Amino acid sequence: NVDEAYELINYSFTPEVGGATINEIGYNSAVIGASDFYSAETKALAQAIYPGDTASKLNPWPPEPPWYADARAEYANKFETA
Question: Which of 2, 34, 45, 78 has a Cα at 20 to 30 A from 10?
Answer without folding.
Answer: 45
